[in-house]
Design goal:
This protein is mainly alpha-helical. The protein is built from two helices and no strands. It is globular and about 45 Å long. The relative contact order is 0.11.
Length: about 80
C-alpha cells in the first residue's frame, strides 16, 4: 500500500498490507509475556498468577495451533510457527 514502510527486512510486506491488520502498539499489565499473549489473543483474563512463560496444560491454545487446526498445510510443512 502506498505510504506504508514496514522495515528494510520485509520489503514486499507493504505490497500485501491490504491482507493484514497493522497494530501499532499493544499493552498489558503482566510481567510475563506468555500469559499476557494468552490473554490478548483469547480476549479472556488469564486464569492464574503470571509467573512463567512455560506453557501449561490449562493455557488457551496459541494462535499457531488455531491456524494449524483450521488451515492445515497441503505440503506437510507447518502452516504456522511461533518464535519466542
Amino acid at each position: 500500500m502506498p505510504g506504508i514502510q514496514v522495515c528494510e527486512h520485509l520489503p514486499q510486506m507493504a505490497q500485501q498490507m491490504d491482507k493484514f491488520c497493522l497494530l501499532r502498539s499493544m499493552t498489558h499489565r503482566m510481567n510475563v509475556h506468555g500469559p499476557a499473549c494468552s490473554e490478548i489473543y483469547s480476549g479472556r483474563e488469564y486464569f492464574g498468577p503470571p509467573i512463567t512463560d512455560q506453557a501449561r496444560p490449562e493455557d488457551w491454545p496459541s494462535l499457531s495451533s488455531l491456524v494449524m487446526r483450521f488451515k492445515p498445510s497441503p505440503t506437510g510443512l507447518p502452516s504456522s510457527v511461533v518464535l519466542p
